[in-house]
Amino acid sequence: MITLAPGTQGAASQQLGIFENHQDVGTLLHPGSAEFDAAKGTYTIAGSGENMWFGIDDFHFAWKKVSGDVALTADIAFLGTGGNPHRKAVLMIRQTLDGPSQSVDIAVHGVGLTSLQFRNPAGDNTHEVEANVSAPKTVRIEKRGDFIYAFVTGKDGKLQPAGASTKLPLTGPFYIGIGVCAHDKDVVEKAVFSNVSFEQLPPATGKQVLVSSLETIKIASTDRHVEYVAAAHFEAPNWSRDGAFLIFNQDGTLHRLALDGSEPTLIPTAPQIHCNNDHGISPDGKLLAISDQSTEDRKSRVYIVPITGGTPKLITPNAPSYWHGWSPDGKTIAFTGERNGNFDIYSVPVDGGEETRLTTAAGLDDGPEYSPDGAWIYFNSERSGHMQIWRMKPDGSQQEQVIVDESNDWFPHISPDGQWMVFLAYEKGVTGHPGGKDVELRLMSMKDKTIHTLAKLFGGQGTINVPSWSPDSLRLAFVSYEQLPQESLDGK
Asked: What is the sign of the dihedral through the CA atoms of 72, 151, 485 and 429?
């Protein structure tokens, strides 16, 4: 067994297994230590430190300096019971050995919470995406290009995507390793890392596999949580009026996901089985508006179906039509329709009747949604030269621009309490709302119009096309995506 002195760096002759050195990172009152048992192939890391959060990390780190695409895998077990519930054992990648460094890690907490934590740029507040698996036996962190992905063992004991990833460009060589933080500056905690393997990943040659992750995010803290992840393409979550479940579309059908860890279930909508990502729940929670293109002309039309499923009722005979909003009284829907080659916003009674054209500007008007008080319809329009957020009265009058910026902004959604608006922002120069892009979810205060970034992610089309606020206005649901090479999913 090799034991390296607390808080020091091991000499090359005392290399700590696959790692080069170890040391305290940040400010620690009690020096950490590292032991390598060659016979068992285990690493025991002892670390103090107040936290690995906000703008600085305080922990003990065993590391090696690397470059290129890499992966690190390990089983993690804490020694001893008690301690702070949020003590952390991590697999980490970081730019430097300074406490405030750019970094990303997959952290297993004392209570079993497992999350991808990341800080970019250096000194910025740390953000996290929580996995929907607690205390997995094995975790893996994988860097491919500028993206870093988390993997955890599922119920079958095999490694699978955690649905958590982040973009973190690193400059030149960087550090990868294992570490422990006590989450209590006055104590030292220990964790054992076993079956540790480091890989220098060759260029991917397999096909790209799309992994979709349905996430929720807390507005106050920006903490994200993976509710459901699969190697499949699904989109556009709605949040039920009672807060108990989410609805999303996949492969032309609608699915219900209870927020209790169970698998999704199908909502029957036959013969409408080519639904797209424009769907939403009525104010009373009893009906579901869907947009479907199962007809012979393959053009989207809006239908109404009971929330539990059933035979859909046609609302918009004219096509194409894409649902986007219910009026607060449940009597009217707002939708985007292409008529005579121009996309505009229309409204129509839920019980049927003539559609009313609300916008006439050249170019695309899209994403109409009523404010909770029914006073406005918010939408996105490219009439200013690029896509921006606008609003108008429900009869189409008083059309005015709400946001003026350089990004391309889509799909405004107002919180049920009327305090916030979330929207999807593409980088300048991106046209349309394609998938596979770096995008931001931005949050605007309806009181003072200040805007801040809620989350940065890889997504776009399908991320937040439809209303997805929780009924208490505290959380938001959305879909993020990963493009993983087949090699990342094989043989784990």
From this structure: negative
Q: Which of 132, 143, 141, 146 is nearest to 196 (CA)?
A: 141
Instruction: State how far the Cα of 220 lies from the Cα of 378, in Å rounded to an integer.
Output: 23
For 305-332, the pLDDT digits (tens) are 999 999 999 999 999 999 999 999 999 9
Q: Which two tokens stand for residue 357?
A: 């054209």
Domain segments of the chain: what residues? 2-203, 208-486
Q: Cα Rg for the chain, rounded, in angstroms?
A: 25
Cα torsion at 171, 177, 183, 184 (round to 10°)? -110
Residue 38: count other Cβ atoms within 10 Å of its Cβ. 9
Mean pLDDT in the chain?
Answer: 95
Enclosing H/E stretch for 488:
helix 486-489
pLDDT of 415-450, one tens digit each? Answer: 999 999 999 999 999 999 999 999 999 999 999 999
CATH number for 208-486: choose from 1.10.730.10, 3.40.1360.10, 3.40.190.10, 2.120.10.30: 2.120.10.30
CATH number of 2-203: 2.60.120.200
Using CA atoms, how far apart are residues 93 and 179, in angstroms rounded to an integer?
Answer: 11
The mean pLDDT value for 110-120 works out to 97
Asked if 455 and 166 touch (Cβ cutoff 8 Å), the reply is: no
- pLDDT per residue as tens digits for the range 209-245: 999 999 999 999 999 999 999 999 999 999 999 999 9
Residue 178's pLDDT is what? 98
